């Protein structure tokens, strides 16, 4: 397994990428914001939208490839893909 921490600054979500021989996993810890979060993938781009007071907040980030599975559980978004 190869771990790459790709982003963590201030109040932003902690975003990590794990690479395996047969695939990869990108995980983002949203904490309490996950109740109002949705995630979609288009090609190798993930789009996360968090609904809250006022305007929704949208964030995009590049994936190492095309996503095969996406899930949100306990405030953590996981996106998995195969090599």
Characterise the protein shown here.
- There is one protein chain.
- This protein has 83 residues and is mostly beta strands.
- The chain has one domain (2-82): Sandwich (Immunoglobulin-like), CATH 2.60.40.
- It is 0% helix and 59% strand.
- Strand 4 and strand 5 form a beta hairpin.
- The two termini are 14 Å apart.
Question: What attributes does this structure have?
Answer:
83 residues; mainly beta; Immunoglobulin-like; five-stranded antiparallel sheet; three-stranded antiparallel sheet; 8 strands; 0% helix
What's the short story on this structure?
This is Hsp20/alpha crystallin family protein. With 83 residues, this protein is mostly beta strands. Helices cover 0% and strands 59% of the residues.
Topology, pairings included?
Blueprint: E1 2-7, E2 14-19, E3 23-29, E4 37-42, E5 45-50, E6 57-62, E7 69-73, E8 76-82
Antiparallel strand pairs: 1-2, 2-3, 3-8, 4-5, 5-6, 7-8
Distance between the termini: 14 Å
The number of E-state strands comes to 8
The number of distinct structural domains comes to: 1
**Beta strand %:** over 45%
Q: SSE order, as H and E?
A: EEEEEEEE
Q: Per the principal axes of the C-alpha atoms, what is the gross shape?
A: globular
CATH architecture: Sandwich
């Amino acid at each position: 397994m190869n771990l790459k921490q790709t982003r963590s600054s201030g109040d932003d979500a902690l975003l990590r990428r794990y690479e395996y021989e047969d695939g990869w996993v990108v995980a983002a810890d949203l904490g309490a914001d996950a109740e109002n979060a949705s995630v979609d993938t288009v090609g190798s781009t993930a789009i996360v939208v968090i609904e809250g007071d006022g305007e929704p907040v949208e964030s995009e980030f590049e994936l190492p490839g095309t996503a095969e599975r996406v899930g949100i559980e306990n405030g953590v978004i996981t996106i998995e893909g195969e090599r």
